[in-house]
Specification:
about 325 residues, mainly alpha, 3 strands, Rhopdopsin 7-helix transmembrane proteins, about 75% helix
């Protein structure tokens, strides 16, 4: 890298997903709907877990934290993209671009570790049930959540420090709707081969290794469940299947993008939309529509809210007569 090169680019142009006005209008409507559904759905999960004492367990504590991360992951770039479709202003400052890179890797890195924590929780619950309460304590759950955020911060800082060392001296058009290293480093005035190796080693291999560990843990859990035929085992099988579905849909695009950073921009766009917009909504869909405990708790919360509204404001008969 020639250290005499200095970044003279003060802003980047986000080309978005397409140039067609009709498609942009369609994407605006679809992504707005998905974003609102993601925020509302995950908010309901968090409120329900907090409000219902029956859900004050390690699994639902981790689930509510996953909802927080999913809302954050959906919010770091999607609102700007929606606004850009309305205003036609598709530029982002250099600092704004670096901030998006930081937030993206913070939330994805944190979610990776949290998904591993949820896998560990299910492994102990199914394979070591007699030791569950002693291993998965409240302190352990808090430690796992804190560790996930610490890992996410360390990982994202490494990506940002690397991005800040890159010289940008010419092209400033990013063929995507947000900033991420695979598309940003291709604009740098340096040899992208070395940068590609950095991407593979710091993000691709880490994501692939974590996915392999998660895959192995779920295989062990599913094999254990197979030897049982009770209703509880069926419930555990359904839960683990849902968990693995989230894991696969989250890790798949990440591994593909960061293991092969020289992919075509079209493939990267499709996969980026998938894990930043579609995946965050899977959490409320899977964990509410498939989970009877959560659905029951939501109905109780809804009934409590409706009854409080009926009982509260204006009981005119209770006022003293004049």
């Amino acid at each position: 890298m020639n250290m005499d090169n200095k970044s003279i680019v003060s802003e980047f142009v986000l080309l978005g997903l397409c140039k067609s006005w009709e498609l942009q209008t369609f994407f605006f409507m679809v992504f707005s709907l998905f974003y609102v559904a993601t925020v509302v759905g995950n908010s309901f999960i968090i409120i329900t877990v907090l409000a219902d004492s029956h859900l004050h367990s390690p699994m639902y504590f981790l689930l509510s934290n996953l909802s927080i991360i999913d809302m954050s992951l959906a919010s770091f770039a999607t609102p700007k993209m929606i606004t850009d479709y309305l205003t036609g202003h598709k530029t982002i400052s250099f600092n704004g671009c670096i901030t998006q890179i930081f937030l993206l890797h913070l939330f994805t890195g944190t979610e990776i570790i949290l998904l591993m924590a949820m896998s560990f929780d299910r492994y102990v619950a199914i394979c070591k049930p007699l030791r569950y309460t002693s291993v998965i304590s409240a302190q352990m759950c808090v430690a796992l959540v804190v560790a996930s955020w610490v890992v996410g911060i360390v990982h994202s800082m490494s990506q940002v420090i690397f991005a800040l060392t890159l010289p940008f001296c010419g092209p400033n058009k990013i063929d995507s709707f947000f900033c991420d290293l695979p598309v940003v480093f291709q604009l740098a005035c340096v040899d992208t081969y070395v940068l590609g190796l950095f991407m593979i080693s710091t993000s691709g291999i880490i994501a692939l290794s974590c996915f392999i560990l998660l895959f192995n843990s779920y295989v062990i859990v599913l094999v254990t469940i197979k030897h049982h035929s009770s209703g509880g085992s069926s419930k555990a099988l359904s839960t683990c299947t849902a968990h693995f579905l989230v894991v696969f849909m989250f890790f798949g695009p990440c591994i593909f993008i960061y293991m092969w950073p020289q992919n075509s921009f079209l493939i990267e766009k499709i996969l980026s939309v998938f894990y930043t917009i579609f995946t965050p909504i899977l959490n409320p869909i899977i964990y509410t529509l498939r989970n009877e405990e959560v659905k029951t708790a939501m109905k109780k919360l809804q009934n409590k809210f409706l009854n409080s509204n009926k009982a509260s404001p204006l009981h005119y008969n209770s006022f003293p007569r004049q």
